[in-house]
């Protein structure tokens, strides 16, 4: 009987404050969708780092005869065979190095044409302008500085480049977007809490006569507060369900259907459905508990029992 009464009071409260309940649902849904999106963005960046960092190389570019005119590091002339052999030997001795590949001038020119063949400048580049290089694969990409320190100042070495620096710019952009999503999420959560508190206050004020009678007949504080807390929890749960739907729909639209980024950007290792599904219970739990806790604290001030 008591459970039936509480449930009936929840329905009455939700209908009585329909506009504010709708506002709570929308704000909770948007904030939790941003929260889930921020978590997924962080996991996407981590997945991309693991995928790409494992594939990028450290490139040791060697001096050619043209560099001697413009590059101070190549003032002694083009790299010699002895210098190349010594560099390769030293690389193979290093524990941080997994594999070493020597790229000839012809190979470098071929790769350049494959990547930039459509560029107007491509026709002005000749094979003798390309550089020989060592493509070094590291056991741990974080150990790039070991290679840079060992070879950057050597005779015959024009420069040492870590391909991670190109990817880091992309990852910094994605992390920046992630921070913006987190800030907006926090703002929306604050708005949601304020709306929940106001909704509970209005609901408690509109039913002050009923709660007064319940207090006179000896009803416990929890029994009086339960309908208000459950109203907020139900509204939050609905918002959480909508947030889950937005996360699932967003993942499908962006990666599988609609934009179909999985097909258009097949070089990117996108997160799978399992990454989304594992975040949904957390989103639902926050959607259920956050409004209930906010309502509990609001009742201490607006509903003296």
Give the topology, please:
Layout: H1 2-16, H2 18-53, E1 58-62, H3 67-70, H4 81-93, E2 97-103, H5 105-116, E3 133-138, H6 144-151, E4 157-162, H7 164-206, H8 208-216, H9 221-256, H10 261-264, H11 273-277, H12 280-302
Antiparallel strand pairs: 1-3, 1-4, 2-3
What does this entry look like structurally?
The chain has 305 residues and is of the alpha+beta class. Helices cover 68% and strands 8% of the residues. It contains 12 helices and 4 strands, in the order ααβααβαβαβαααααα. The chain has a 4-stranded antiparallel beta sheet. α2 runs antiparallel to α12 (280-302).
Q: Tell me about the largest β-sheet.
A: 4 strands, antiparallel
- From the N-terminal CA to the C-terminal CA, the straight-line distance is 22 Å
What is the SS-derived class?
Answer: alpha+beta
Mean pLDDT reading: 77
Secondary-structure element string: HHEHHEHEHEHHHHHH
Widest beta sheet: strand line-up: 2-3-1-4
Q: What coarse outline follows from CA principal-axis ratios?
A: rod-shaped
What portion of residues is helical?
Answer: 55-70%
Given as residue ranges, the uncertain stretches (5+ residues, pLDDT < 50) are none
- Our count of helices gives 12
Beta content comes to: 5-15%
Give the beta-strand count: 4
Cα radius of gyration in angstroms: 31 Å
